[in-house]
Amino acid sequence: MGVAAGRWFTDPVRWAFENGITNGTSPTTFDPGQAVTRVQFAAFLSRYDNLTN
Predict the structure, then answer these.
(1) Contact at 8 Å (CB) between 30 and 5?
(2) How far apart, in whole angstroms, are the C-alpha atoms of residue 50 and residue 1?
(3) In the chain, what percentage of residues exceed pLDDT 70?
(4) Alpha helix ranges (H) inside 1-53
(5) pLDDT above 90: residue 32
């Protein structure tokens, strides 16, 4: 997943990755310093909605 252990975002990113909310910046990496685009955020919301409904 490419997220360092012990960072404030490690557990939320792991949860989102394991539940298909995010796929990261590649199959093996995640870039917490990169800005989220409007399209990416819409995809996150759509995937979360599908997960919870």
Answers:
(1) no
(2) 22
(3) 96
(4) 10-18, 38-52
(5) no
